Amino acid sequence: MTKTTGDTADVRQPDAGPADVRPADVRPADVRPADALRERDPAERVWRRLRALVLEQNERRKETADALGMSFFRAKALRRIALRPSRMSELASVLGTDRPYLTLVVDDLVKRGLVERNPDPTDRRSKIVTVTAEGAAAAARADAILSTPPPALLGLPAEDLAALDRITSALVVDD
After folding, report:
1. DSSP E strands: which ranges in the chain?
2. What is the DSSP letter of 84?
3. Which positions ≥6 away from 114 have C-beta within 8 Å?
4. With the CA atoms of 152, 155, 158 and 160 taken in that order, what torsion angle do they form, in degrees rounded to the nearest 10?
């Protein structure tokens, strides 16, 4: 704020607060340093390692996209359509996208000969998307890539794999 009186200017600084508080010292209560996280929360440590195993060290999404020559989202949509024919609105909901973007994705899959869009026999305003034979083969190829366990997992002893199987079965809800 500047206050001018005659030919001198009185420049006032906004209240900066206590002199001993700096932005680097301010940290939300739920954010802890990495070392503290490792020591205090085994669930977060396990989750971090699982994410690293699946999403960083064994990135199958890029491998799938490269093998099919399309984005991973297109491959995901194709795999979903291969499971069962669906209305566009259902697909958009299941895939967590908006309908206009899904229309672009499905149009591309149609051009590639991987899916077909047909009128819904029960509601002619809707379209049902179904997989073609070529699309089913591409979806199977994607499934094979995504289902291949990483070498680190394959190298575990049988008793460790059995323990992981038991633990993950308690954590994952099958569709």
Report:
1. 2-5, 8-11, 86-87, 115-120, 123-131
2. S
3. 78, 131, 132, 134, 135, 138
4. -30
